[in-house]
Amino acid sequence: MVISKPRHWKAIALVSSAVLVAGIAPQALAGENAPKGADASNVAPADAPAGYYDAAEGKTGDELKTALNGIISEQEVLSYSDVWDALKQTDEDPADSSSVVLFYSGESSPKDNNGGDQGNWNREHVWAKSHGDFGTSPGPGTDIHHLRPTDVQVNSIRGNKDFDNGGEPVEGAPGNSTDNDSWEADDEVKGDVARMIFYMATRYEGTDSFPDLEVNDQVENGSAPLHGKLSVLKEWHEADPPSDFEKNRNDVIFDIQKNRNPFIDNPEWVGEIF
Predict the structure, then answer these.
(1) Is the pLDDT of residue 25 over 60?
(2) Which residues of 87-103 are buried (b: 16+ CB within 10 A; e: fewer)?
(3) What phi and psi values does residue 74 have, to the nearest 5 degrees?
(4) What is the model's pLDDT at position 47?
(5) Helical packing angle, 61-72 and 190-203, nearest 10°
(6) How do the residues of the chain divide into helix, strand and coil, expressed in percent and rounded to 5?
(7) Which pTM does this prediction carry?
(8) Separation between Cα atoms, residue 208 and residue 128, nearest integer Å
(9) How many CB atoms lie within 10 A of CB 57?
């Protein structure tokens, strides 16, 4: 069963189990632009470890992207089955430690409600896995920086569509819209979507066994290793800055996967690279 949470709450941070995972010190802090259904908490996100981005300092453009790729490519690679347990930590509902906050809809669903049937939540690839045809094999297919718990029906409706503005309302995910070739995310997670896409385009550069993922300014990219729409994603990034929930998620992923999303830690780098 999926339980709807109030849509107007916006202060959010990590709950006790995630605090134990990430070793984050509690502070009184309320965040903006958090996913719907989030409750206030007294835990603040941590900063990137000292020196983590040293190799990127002073660089711009392609040099900055290359430096960040070198930094964030140092990671633990998960199996697809590992992703279930990881998402139960990264997206835990701060108002209910037995549930996760579902992406796009912002609803809360029990952690053990994961699966493939209607009413379950499953593993949404925000960078659609067909864009580069990497599937669910270890690497981009299991990178939890862009994998989110999502209602099965909503995940199916989104499919492998690129991101753009416009469309008709999505059943089961108020605030989201879709048409035959694109998906518009709810205002409260637009920036999250953009920063996940920018992470993937920076982490996977074709220098290992994985495809070279790039962002372009079009939709209907099919199986090409491309995702759009760049101009819209940049607008979403600016309009929806990183929330405490997103920052805390980055901290927990760092504990699990040992790398970070640099565009959450340093939002200004989006303009430097893209």
Answers:
(1) no
(2) bbbbbbbbbbeebbbbb
(3) -80, 95
(4) 83
(5) 90
(6) 35, 15, 50
(7) 0.87
(8) 20
(9) 9
